[in-house]
Amino acid sequence: MQEDLFGDAIPQPPASKPAASSRRKITKVSLATSALELSDLAAQLPETLRFGVSTWSYPGWEGLIWDGEYESNILSKHGLEAYHLHPLMRTVCVDRTFWRPLTVTQYSAYAAQVDEDFRFVVKCPSMITDAQVRDEQGKVRKSNPDFLDIRLAVEQFVQPAVEGLRAKLGVLVFQLSPLSWGWLNRPAELFDKLGQMLVAAREALPQDSPVIFAVEVRDPELLTQGLVDTLKASGATFCLGLHGKMPPIDEQLPLLRALWPGPLVCRWNLNREFGAYGYADAQKKHTPFDAIVSEDVHTRTVLARTIRGITGAGQAAYVTISNDAEGCAPLSIQRLAQLIAAHEN
After folding, report:
1. Rounded to an integer, what distance in angstroms lies between the CA atom of residue 75 and that of residue 89?
2. Residue 334: closest CA among 90, 38, 34
3. DSSP string for 92-124
4. Which of 32, 85, 132, 166 is 20 to 30 A (C-alpha) from 148?
5. pTM, rounded to two decimals
6. Are strands 132-134 and 140-143 parallel, antiparallel or unpaired?
7. Domain-embedded: residue 2
8. CATH number of the structural domain spanning residue 322
9. Domain encompassing residue 229
C-alpha cells in the first residue's frame, strides 16, 4: 500500500525510532506440525508419484502447510522452503513463468530452497505458446508473430530453466492457449510448427536428460491422431488439463493410451461446475481456500485409477492441483493420496 494516501499531507515531526520487534522482517516460514502426521500416508504412495500445487502463496493454508499466519507476499518469497518439507508435496507448478520468462538467477533461487529429491514443473511463457497477443484482461489485440518460435522457446524458456534448476527440473509444460479458428482449421500446419519447436527444445537439453516435455491444449478440436503423432515424433507426452474448457478426464485418457508407455503429467486446474471461464467464480466461492467446497468425486476417482496404472508400470506421474479444483489444493491432494494408498495396501 502507498505510505502517503493524500497528495498534500501535512508535515509531521520525525517519528520515534520503532522498537526492534516491530521492525523485524520475516525471512522464514515454517511447516505446520500437523503436516508431519501425513508421513505414513506419503510412505504408502508409489515412489514415482509426485503431487504438488500450482503456487504456494495462499495464507488460507494455515495449519495445512503453514505453521501460522503469513501475508501472501511473505509466502511468495519464503513459503517454498516450508512447502517442500510437506510429506505429500514433492513437486510444484511454477505458473508465473506463463506470464513472463524467468532468469537463470530466479530459477536458481527456487532450486536453493528445496532438497535434492524435489522437482519443478514449469510452464512455457505465453509469448511463445499463445497464438494471440492479449491485453491485461485477456482480450485479443493481434496475432502473435512469435507463436511457437524455436529460438525464443530455447533461449527464453528451456535454457534458463535447465541452467537454473539443474537436476531439480522435472517437467516443461507447453500450454497452448485457446486458438483462433484460423489455426484450428489448419491442424497440419499447427502440428508441424509445434513439432519442430518441441524437437529443437529437446535438443537444447543435456544429453540423456530425464526432463519430461508435456503439451497441454485448451481446444478439444486438437485431441486428434495428429496431436498423438506430433507428440510421439518429438518425444513429448500429453498433459491432462482438467477444467471446463476441455472434456472430462475420461474423454482425454485415450490420448495417453495412444502414447503408452509414457509418464503422466496432469494439471487439475478448475472444477467443471464453473464452466470454461469460471476462474473468478471459483475464486469467489473457494476463498480462503482452506476447505473442500466443490467436491469432484468422479474426477478424483478416475485420476486415482489412472495414477495407479501408470505408476504401477514404473512410469513417472506428476500431478499438480489448483485451489480452483475443489476449494483447497492441499486437501484435494490428501484425499487423492488416501484413495491411492487404500488400493496399494
Report:
1. 16
2. 38
3. EEEGGGGTSPPPHHHHHHHHTTS-TT-EEEEEP
4. 166
5. 0.91
6. antiparallel
7. no
8. 3.20.20.410
9. 29-344
Question: Nearest CA to 95 among 118, 115, 121?
Answer: 121
Contact 217, 240 (CB under 8 A): no
pLDDT in tens, 100-136: 999 999 999 999 999 999 999 999 999 999 999 987 7
Contact 259, 228 (CB under 8 A): yes
Distance CA 298, CA 308 (A): 16
**Residue 20, domain member (yes or no):** no
Task: In whole angstroms, give the CA distance from residue 121 to residue 170.
Answer: 6
Residue 268's H or E segment, with its range, is strand 264-268
> What is the SS3 assignment for 15-32?
CCCCCHHHHCCCCCCCEC
CA distance 191 to 229: 9
Q: CB atoms < 10 A from the CB of 6, how many?
A: 7
In sign, the C-alpha dihedral spanning 178, 182, 184, 186 is negative
Look at residue 4 and tell me if it is in a domain: no
Q: What tens digit of pLDDT does each residue of 285-315 get?
A: 999 999 999 999 999 999 999 999 999 999 9
Closest CA to 124 of 90, 91, 160, 88: 160
Total number of domains constituting the chain: 1
Q: Are 304 and 4 in contact (CB under 8 A)?
A: no
Burial 107-143 (b: 16+ CB within 10 A, else e): bbebbeebeeebbbbbbbbbbbbbbbeeeeeeeeeee
Q: What is the pLDDT of residue 62?
A: 97
Res. 344 pLDDT band, cuts 50 70 90 = low
Terminal alpha carbon distance of the chain:
52
Judge if the upstream peptide bond of residue 288 is cis by omega within 30 degrees of 0: yes
CA distance 78 to 94: 15
Q: Is residue 140 part of a domain?
A: yes
